[in-house]
Design goal:
The complex is a heterodimer of chains A (about 180) and B (about 350). With about 180 residues, chain A is an alpha/beta fold. Chain A is about 40% helix and about 25% strand. Chain A is globular. Chain B has 13 helices and 14 strands. Classes of the chains: A alpha/beta (about 180), B alpha/beta (about 350).
Chain lengths: ~180, ~350
């Protein structure tokens, strides 16, 4: 099993955090993982992306030209990375922001209204957790319990009040693809 | 031991603290700024001293001063900043002062780009400053190795009274990977009875100096350094061989390109091509004897050197090791562009075609 995932969006949408959560949960399940961010003279509102590898074998290259899955949080990300998705791969589109559809017929596409669901659960900041839920449910590469346990560890101490909100967002994201 | 997910640069800083780094002097530069950032918060918590210097030149001279007084001192930077530190590094080498210097390489020449590159191989392995000197150069290719090497680097520096360079690149600094904080075997180190930190009852002052105006004296120092370097070359050389036992085509690469090559190996092997990887871990001392022996093997038909350098720099050492026994091809990308898995596969196939 080897997943090579690109997560891309505007700075502030939580794309890099989705990647970090996938890597962290993958590590917790004993997988070999890497997380590599694009870095550069980024500006607020500019695009940022990261490359994540989840693999049952040691990870060679942490960067790749072709991905198994793409998570596109904004329009430019879909435009830029769709061509690089491997045939038969999957694209997760943040459909509140991206109006375009996935154009390649050989790809599986999920349209997740992250912002709308985040709004419904009570906080626009958890849109990325909705997307994480969709990814986990669709690929089944990680156990939902691992993510939920990770969320509990992540928001320790005074931040504990954010746990139910994040778990709710994550579960709503999962429900989108089930 | 539980694995933890760490970003390369932050892991470098934490590893140094765990190795007993007393002082860190640095100046921010992408892609290594998380090293001083982490140090600024956490080194003082451990009783250490963090100074953001006014320049890279100041930082390396602060290292010279602190390490000359017997402290475990460190600096980190990226390519253009490391260029500025070269004067200080040759002084450290000349005065035989131990220190750890981290270079998260980026594209050059000049200010270049902030993306990963490997254009500082010559500078690190040949001595980027003036005079006959060498720094031990450790080249990690993942975050675990990076933290292991940083911790060990302080011991290597102290054992030989010599600067040690960790030659990483922007990707290793920026990426996150699971690591374990393994206990690193501590070396039996000589006392720092040479340190300029007060007379402490001695009948003389210790002097930290790299000026030896009398040519006889300076010659003596150089001869002594040459002996020391020979000793280091004998004891410290490291490399890794992956699937070289039956390899027809051997890729030579270090750091990030070595990782990319590992992925290429999977496809090459699946395509029935017997490919292997020879990865120098110490760039100085370079594992030339091991490479020479590998090149002598009958099953090895050709080499492919892969670097994040357009002209090729390590390839010189690969040539010295192979010594003409087998042909060597080259694949290089520079200026922040990394060679891809696909490019390595194609270059490997071409390298073999030429000898068949």
């Amino acid at each position: 099993m080897k997943k090579e995932i690109i997560i891309s969006g505007f700075g502030g949408q939580g794309g890099l955090a989705i990647g970090k959560n996938l890597a962290e949960a993958g590590m917790d399940e004993g997988l070999n993982v890497t997380w590599a961010p694009s870095y550069g003279p980024e500006m607020r509102g500019g695009t940022a992306n990261c490359s994540v590898v989840l693999s049952d074998k040691p990870v060679g290259s942490p960067v790749f030209a072709r991905c198994t899955e793409l998570i596109a949080l904004n329009e430019p990300s879909l435009e830029k990375f769709e061509a690089g998705v491997l045939p038969g791969g999957t694209v997760f589109v943040n459909s509140d922001v991206v109006t375009d559809k996935v154009s390649r017929p050989d790809l599986k596409a999920y349209y997740i209204p992250c912002a709308q669901i985040a709004e419904e659960v009570g906080n626009p900041k958890v849109g990325n957790m909705v997307m994480l839920g969709a990814y986990v449910a669709a690929t089944k590469v990680l156990k939902p319990e691992t993510i939920e346990k990770m969320i509990e560890t992540m928001f320790a101490g005074p931040k504990a009040k954010f746990i139910p909100l994040n778990i709710e967002a994550f579960r709503r994201g999962m429900a989108c693809v089930q | 031991m539980a694995k933890e997910l760490w970003k390369g640069n932050e892991a470098i800083a934490e590893a140094a603290i765990r190795a007993g780094c007393d002082c860190f002097f640095g100046y921010p530069i992408t892609p290594q700024s998380e090293v001083p950032e982490y140090m600024s918060v956490h080194l003082p918590e451990h009783g250490g001293v963090f100074v953001q210097s006014e320049s890279e030149v100041a930082a390396i001279n602060m290292v010279y001063g602190a390490a000359g007084a017997g402290m475990r001192a460190m600096t980190s930077s990226s390519s253009p900043g490391i260029s500025l530190k070269q004067e200080g590094i040759t002084y450290l080498a000349g005065a035989e002062v131990p220190a750890v210097i981290v270079n998260c390489m980026r594209g050059g020449p000049g200010l270049g780009t902030i993306q990963p590159a490997q254009g500082d191989y010559y500078q690190a392995t040949r001595g980027g400053g003036n005079g006959d000197y060498r720094t031990v150069v450790l080249a990690p290719s993942n975050v675990q190795e990076t933290v292991d090497f940083v911790q060990e680097a302080f011991d290597i520096a102290d054992q030989y009274r010599n600067p040690v360079v960790i030659l990483a690149d922007g990707l290793i600094g920026q990426m996150m990977e699971p690591i374990e904080w393994k206990p690193i075997a501590k070396r039996d180190l000589p006392p720092k009875d040479w340190a300029a930190c007060g007379r402490k009852g001695r009948d003389h002052h210790n002097v930290i100096n790299s000026l030896f105006i009398d040519p006889e004296e300076c010659n003596q120092l150089n001869n002594h350094l040459a002996e020391k370097y020979a000793e280091i070359a004998k004891n410290e050389v490291r490399w890794e061989e992956v699937e070289c036992e039956d390899a027809e085509l051997v890729i030579t690469a270090y750091g990030t390109p070595a990782r990319i090559a590992l992925t290429a190996l999977e496809t090459l092997r699946a395509d029935g091509i017997k490919a292997g990887l020879f990865r120098p871990i110490t760039l100085w001392p370079f594992p030339e004897k091991a490479l020479h022996e590998l090149a002598a093997k009958e099953h090895v038909r050709a080499f492919l050197d892969v670097e994040m350098s357009s002209t090729g720099q390590m390839i010189d050492d690969v040539r010295l090791g192979v010594e003409g026994q087998k042909p060597i091809s080259f694949l290089g990308q520079a200026g922040g562009v990394m060679p891809t898995v696909e490019e390595i596969i194609e270059a490997a196939k071409n390298a073999l075609k030429e000898v068949k």
